[in-house]
Amino acid sequence: MPDRKIVIIPTYNEKENAEAIIRKTLSLSGNFEILIINDGSPDGTGDIVKNLQKEFIKRLHLIERSGKLGLGTAYITGFKWAIAHKYDYIFEMDADFSHNPEDLIRLHEACSNNKTGAVVGSRYITGINVVNWPMGRVIMSYYASAYVRLITRMKIKDTTAGFMCYKRHVLETIDLDNIRMKGYGFQIEMKYTTWKLGFKLKEIPIIFIDRQQGTSKMSSSIFGEAMWGVLKLRFRKILPKQPAS
Ligand SMILES: Nc1nc2c(ncn2[C@@H]2O[C@H](COP(=O)(O)OP(=O)(O)OP(=O)(O)O)[C@@H](O)[C@H]2O)c(=O)[nH]1
Ligand SMILES: [Mg+2]
After folding, report:
1. Residue 43 CA: which ligand is closest?
2. How far is the CA of 55 from the centre of ligand 1 (A)?
3. For atom 22 of ligand 1, which residue has the closest CA?
4. What is the mean pLDDT of residues 129-143?
5. Distance CA 130, CA 138 (A)
6. Tens digit of each residue's pLDDT (9 = 90 or more) over 137-186
């Protein structure tokens, strides 16, 4: 049986990107499927996806949520759905082409190594691979990772990376209801939990290109949450999910 692969793409107001990112990802070799988590985007992103579902039957899935509930909870909802539907490899990818869908094939290859639990599409392995971001944002993101390494001792270069591949059993072992951070902090907390539970995290280099279409959802509160959240995380006991009694 070939590996079953699902790419989870959270969307909030991505009408300029939705159709293109779906067509590009489903055109790749390797039979990837997509799960869109759309937070009731007022710009009609949900309708664009529903339309495309008629064309991509059984390969394009959609979960609609009532309002903007945050990237972190969108992924937790997606992980639970992917586990319940028994996908072998579960990916995270943004909708705005900052992540190149073609890199999904390399993420999967690296993740299929039997020692690896999860793979990080990293901007900071070979220097800084970010295109068109304002310098201030590059510095903030780069040093955010340095800060996380200092506090957590985790040897990951790109701790806030949002381009990921997880093996299902890693996500089955994580107590997803106990993941607390919602923004960038969510990406740090997931990697830290994966590492603390003894799974191997592998980084592969990717190039991150600043969004060309649509508006940014980044806010300073997301940044603040991550800074304090990491300190609290450092002193929290990370336990595997308890089997349902
Ligand atoms: N479902 C859902 N998706 C979200 C939410 N916030 C952001 N997203 C999506 O998450 C992905 C990453 O968000 P971005 O706004 O690209 O964040 P960023 O890359 O840090 O910032 P820019 O690209 O500069 O805007 C995109 O696909 C967004 O549409 C949310 O609250 N709910
Ligand atoms: Mg983006």
Report:
1. 1
2. 25
3. 216
4. 87
5. 7
6. 888 888 889 999 999 999 999 999 999 999 999 999 999 999 998 877 99
Ligand 1: residues within 6 Å at CB? 10-12, 14, 37, 39, 68-71, 74, 94-96, 98, 211, 216-218
With a cut of 80, say whether residue 220 has pLDDT above it: no
94 CA from centroid of ligand 1 (Å): 7
Sign of CA dihedral 201, 207, 210, 214: negative
pTM over 0.90: yes
Q: Among the listed ranges 80-84, 180-184, 219-223, which one has the minimum average pLDDT value?
A: 219-223
Choose the residue to mutate in 16, 24, 71 for probing ligand 1, maximizing ligand atoms within 8 Å of C-beta. Answer: 71
Q: Are 22 and 56 a contacting pair, CB within 8 Å?
A: yes
- Domains of the chain in start order, with CATH, are 5-234 (3.90.550.10)
Give the tens place of pLDDT for each residue, 185-219.
999 999 999 999 999 999 999 999 988 777 666 56
pLDDT at 69: 93
